[in-house]
Design goal:
- The protein is mainly alpha-helical.
- It has a domain of 68 residues: lambda repressor-like DNA-binding domains (434 Repressor (Amino-terminal Domain), Orthogonal Bundle).
- 70% of the residues lie in helices and 0% in strands.
- Helix 12 runs antiparallel to helix 13.
- The chain is globular.
- It starts with 11 loop residues before the first helix and ends in a 6-residue tail after the last helix.
- The relative contact order is 0.06.
Length: 319
């Protein structure tokens, strides 16, 4: 596909953005919404380089392209703030809360007025620190909603499918769903899950969305199952398994098979039927999930399945 892109004056990034935007029939207005002005996007596509690297990264990700596919030409400033982002991430991972807050403040001052993705990064970091210091989950949700609203300004009022989501934007929305599940905001979870599933189906031609779908399918099928929406849970689970088969990674297949086994088992028990073929199918799915968890070293889930199949199916040959 890349061979069809016409590069002029070594303008790899601008040419790539223009090519993929036109290939997917995306207007400039829709692509840059919440990130930059149409004028700025036109300058990028025309080959001008004086644009923040984080904005370029987000534009590429919204088009389903991974930034490492391209040579991002960065300024000294871009490199400086990139290093600070990495150091902040490291401090958060190490749970060095005070040091992280100090560096986040420096980053916010350095990037003030440089674009909405920088403000979004700061807010996401603050949401993580709020969790680390034991802050209220509702506060984390509020910070994350403020973060997504930086680049998806009508998040609370309009359909997500009106936007094209970068990796950061997608992950923020998934985090919001996770936290809303914990705080029992069921109606809002239903609404956002339906929107994100519709979005991924609508733009499934984008490679990145195919990779995202299994992750959403695990989250959605668990949620729908726990709220007795079994048909919906099974449908999204099957779709997730189908999508997982198109990727080279096995990240979510164990969880999807495990969820499908539990959903089918619940449906079978509620039917009151003595369907041995259906029981064998459930057992098969449980075992497939078990061996995947075992392969990836997820002993907690593996032990749960082992105990369940021994009790429910009298299956001992699992070690």
């Amino acid at each position: 596909m890349y061979k069809d892109i016409q590069f002029e004056d070594n303008n790899y990034i601008g040419a790539a953005i223009l090519y993929f935007r036109e290939s997917y029939n995306i207007s400039q207005r829709k692509l840059c919404k919440g990130l930059c002005s149409i004028t700025t996007l036109s300058r990028i596509e025309a080959g001008e380089r004086d644009v923040d690297a984080l904005i370029l990264e987000n534009l590429l990700e919204r088009l389903g392209r991974m930034p490492y596919h391209f040579e991002l030409i960065v300024t000294d400033f871009d490199y400086e703030v990139y290093l600070i982002r990495k150091e902040i991430d490291k401090l958060i991972e190490e749970e060095s809360i005070d040091e992280a807050y100090i560096l986040i403040k420096k980053y916010a001052q350095l990037t003030d007025g440089k674009g909405t993705p920088h403000k979004q990064f700061v807010l996401v970091c603050k949401s993580k620190l709020n969790e680390l210091k034991g802050g209220k989950c509702e506060t984390t949700i509020d910070i994350l909603i403020e973060a997504i609203s930086c680049t998806v300004p009508d998040f609370n009022t309009n359909d997500i499918s009106n936007h094209f989501l970068s990796t950061m934007e997608f992950n923020i929305i998934i985090d919001i769903i996770d936290k809303m599940i914990v705080t029992n905001k069921t109606e809002q979870v239903y609404q956002i899950l339906d929107q994100i599933i519709y979005y991924l189906n609508r733009y499934e031609q984008m490679e990145q969305n195919s990779r995202r779908f299994p992750k959403v399918a695990v989250l959605a099928s668990s949620f729908f199952m726990n709220h007795n929406d079994l048909d919906k849970a099974l449908k999204i689970c099957n779709r997730g398994i189908e999508k997982q088969k198109t990727t080279t990674k096995l990240n979510y297949i164990g969880d999807l098979l495990y969820n499908k086994a539990k959903i089918l088992e619940i449906i079978l028990k509620r039917s009151g039927k003595k369907d041995q073929a259906a029981r064998k199918e459930c057992l098969k799915l449980f075992l497939e999930a078990y061996y995947l968890f075992d392969f990836f070293g997820d002993s907690d889930k593996g032990e749960k399945i082992k105990a369940h199949v021994r009790e429910e199916y009298q299956w001992e040959d699992i070690d």
